[in-house]
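Hey,

Quick one before I head out. I ran the complex with adenosine-5'-triphosphate overnight. Inputs first:
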Amino acid sequence: MVFGFLSSGNNKKGKERKKLHDSSGNNGKRSSNDIILKDINIFYSGKQAIKDVDMTIPEKKVTAFIGPSGCGKSTLLRNINRMNDEIVGCTYDGEILWQGTDILEKKVDPVALRRRIGMVFQKPNPFPKTIFDNIAYGPKLLGIRNKKKLKEIVEKSLRDAALWNEVKDRLNDSAMGLSGGQQQRLCIARALAVEPDVILMDEPCSALDPIATAKIEDLINELKKEYTVVIVTHNMQQASRISDFTGFMYLGELIEFGKTRQIFENPKEDLTERYITGRFG
Amino acid sequence: MGFFDRGSTELKKAPLTKKVAKLSERVVVSTLFSASSVSVLISAAILYTLIEGSIKFFNFDEVSIWDFLFGSEWIPSGTDPSFGIYPLLSDTILIAGGTILLAGPIGIAAALFLSEYAPSKVRNVAKPVVELLAGIPSIVYGFFALFTIGPIVREIFPEATYFNALQAIIVMTFMVLPIVVSISDDSLKAVPRHMREASLAMGATKWETSIKVVIPAAASGISASVLLGVARAIGETMVVTLAAGSISGGHWNPLMEIQPMTSFIAQTATGDIPPGTPQAEAAFAVGITLFIMTYFVNRIAGRVVLRIKKGSIVKKEPSRVQKFIRKNTIDRIRKPVEITKEMISYRPIRIDRSIKFIDKTKLKGNLIRRKIKGYFGVSTTVLSLVLAFVFLIYLLVEVFIKGAGSISWDFLTSEPGFRVTEASIMPALTGSVFLMLLTLLFAVPLGVGTAVYFNEIAKDTWYTRFLRNVIQNLAGVPSIVFGLVGLAIFVRLFNFGPSLLAGSMTLALMIMPIIVVSSEEALKSVPQSFRDAARGVGATRWQTVRDHVLPNAVPGIITGSILSLSRAIGETAPILFIGAFFAKTAPSGVMDSFVALPLTIFFWSRHAQDEYHEFASGAILVLLVILLIMNAIAIFIRYRSQKRRVW
Amino acid sequence: MPEKFDHEMGLLNEDIWNMGVLSQKMLLLAVESLKNRDKDLADKVLGMKEELYDYDQHIEEHTLKVLILYQPVAKEMRNLACILKMITYLTRIGRYGYDISKVTLELADQPLVKKLIDIPNMAKIVAGMLDDVLKAWETEDLSLIEDFTERDDVLDEERYSIFRECLTYVMEDPKTITRCMHYVMVARYLERCGDHCCKIAEKVVYKVEGKHVEIS
Ligand SMILES: Nc1ncnc2c1ncn2[C@@H]1O[C@H](COP(=O)(O)OP(=O)(O)OP(=O)(O)O)[C@@H](O)[C@H]1O
Ligand SMILES: [Mg+2]
């Protein structure tokens, strides 16, 4: 049999491509919780970093972006929760439809959006505060002052991030004293604490050893049952292990997007194949 | 013979032993070494001056160390003098504390605006403007405090006396503001971007991120900036001498006259205090107290600044002390955590999202409240910066309006007489110029030599580290202490008397550390590849420096030197003990006595007749114009050399 | 890494090719020995078994090593999956050659029932299929194996006609039973070899196109 959804990055005919992409998501089942990117272009001070990206990121699945350094993975990811608004000179057009709204519209408040679309970064970046305060930071911003409630949130978030058992006896120690892997799980817990629906991860394991990486991967596997996860990774094996869908990007374009198994077993684009087999350049 | 005829064999025969290093090279290197060691001599001179003077002071029968440290009254003159340092100390603390209470928040807010909110265009203009505040001589601040801020203060608080602490505090706030702003700004900027992003990505507003994440992360740098501001305020002499009065208080009332330590030292220079009395020598004991205070404050701040420069602004590892404390307290009290299998092996937990803590209905109102808070916060930071601008403009306009009227050809060039109408700054102007040229002669070779030695020749040994430390400490010594050193060493010990020579040498001591720092910057900006290239073809260290490094660093060195000289020309405190207050003619030799512009301004500001205050404004205007010209030249040289730079 | 990987793959490809040639040779020589009742030739084929097994083991080990060290994806992964299957089939084919040689040894002292034509013909078809499928594997030219279904059908028919023919001999003269049973078995072996070639062809299609197809 042949896989039903193919993308063709080289195919410049927008309409046809869009149709192909649209069917990619949940095997054709579409949900308003899917994140639908339409004709996304992103510029850094006029220099184009992302070109005409169209894709559907399905709900409650792990979607991975792969591609050579500088191809725009982080840029695209950061647009999904409007982190690019914080970069001076960064402009974008196109639409990102999510739950019935175009979240790139001016009237959408990025502050409110980011609570619902959380983000985890490449380098574990806990605040230089205690473990407790790190997790409670978000809920406190949202106006939760009740100590007992905060404690419950901290415990649940840490449990969900599979960190509770390791830190429950030292919640009041500095988060900087944790190991790299623990710090990263803390960052995930911190993101979970504000009850988001989508979690974006930009190379979350690139600074971690294999064991810590495995734990995060297990965690992501668990998370996807309840959250939509979008992850950028340079580790091809990781992408193939944990993601359900994979997009290959090159020079700001989405070259190929499809089920992970298909991308890694039988990529349609020569460029993709050359990249994943390490014959690039 | 082919193209590559290696020719005469003389070169080939040169022995490969070390003896090749020529005598001249060794002479130059040891000269540079000596130049760099002068800073040790200067430090020794400071310590010698302060200790020797203090010993003399404590040897008087009327004085005891116990009373000095713990006595509560400071009555240096009269039949029954009493030397308890407490009132001077408390006045110093009042002044420095008051200053930092204002300058701290304003400075941090302004820095926050600059680093987090200002568009780069605004930032590029605003930062130099704020730093302009640091370029204005303190005597000008003193004048402004007394004659412009004073009336306003008395208007608002009718009970305030003519001299009072508050007016000094207000101007000193803006004097130390550039220190607080620039170092706070540096450390805010040093907070890694990912820290901000972590907060923003969680749905925090920018203001919340600034307050709850960025400022706490930069806390050490910010406190260093505040400490340096405190050190500056403690050591400030002219503002308090002019505006705060000369009666030691200890009453903690900012609306009344006070006398901090620096002010007392200055008073011994200006009043008619007979030398050799306990009252005169008390200056040294107060000086050493001042020195110790500023030394420690600077030292703590310096360490923090160093750490920021090295980039480790966020402490990851607990310090040795913290570890020790933890080991001996917490760990003993708390039972060691038993490591269970559960802790090691990861066991996925079913994530249940039906449990919700956040009440989604309240989020909207909450968000609006948070945003409003943010707008208010950012407005405050903008206001702080605007306040600094307004102050600067007000000061410049005031000086101009008051001073412009008194400027005339005669005012600048004629010989002064004793009548009001015959006032002239000619002797002061020429005195200042001579003073500057002599200072240049002493300070620049020493400073540049030291910088070359550090940057090009010295290896990293305990001695060079020690020297660096010494120089760093010298840069923090209050200027009035240099005044005492000049008095004790050059005037008395070397017997130069109150002469141009003694004055310029004193100023040279003071600005040498600044020249070292700026010259080192200039040397560092020469690419390492130039040196490698020269060394690679067999040039010695000194040849490399002479032929390839120095020529390229000269513009930078000149710029730095001019800027430090402009600092010297505006200084009053160091030459307070040496210069005269009135002279009819310009000095004609290095051993002549002299007056200088800042001294004249000081003298006229304290004059009983109001006309002289106008003249003081005129002199200030002239001084500011000279500073402006010097700065313009420095900036021009820097600009031209940057344009010509090919690397 | 690709350079080193390519080098390893080069070695593997060469081994596979040699192994294919070896098993083909075993099959052809065995049939030849049967035809000529040549015991020496049959002995020679028996001696090749060791070499064939060595290839099998060596290639499998090498393939696993490459899989572990380079964790290839896409076509590279498919190729290695193909190789792992191929060596099994090639071993089977060579092994049938071995079995046919055993038959030669048993029948060498007896006269032929008739001149052997169909069996060598079948062997030729199988050898041709093997040739083509190896070439297709190497050159990724799938047109070479397009007609494998038909060729497999031909083999089936040939086997069946041999079976019918032998049946008539046996009915005529029961003394020929042993020999005819052996002939039927050999025909059966050759037909199985054809099936193996088809299986290899399926893997080659998977290698080249990433598709799972069924041939025959
Ligand atoms: N703040 C910025 N200003 C200007 N250009 C930028 C900025 N950030 C990224 N770029 C440019 O945009 C392009 C895409 O960058 P991006 O960080 O998205 O790549 P990436 O795929 O995430 O790379 P990596 O794998 O190295 O993280 C690059 O060419 C980069 O130089
Ligand atoms: Mg990136």
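The beta strands of chain A are 35-44, 47-57, 62-66, 90-98, 101-102, 117-120, 198-202, 228-232, 245-250, 253-259.

Talk tomorrow,
K.
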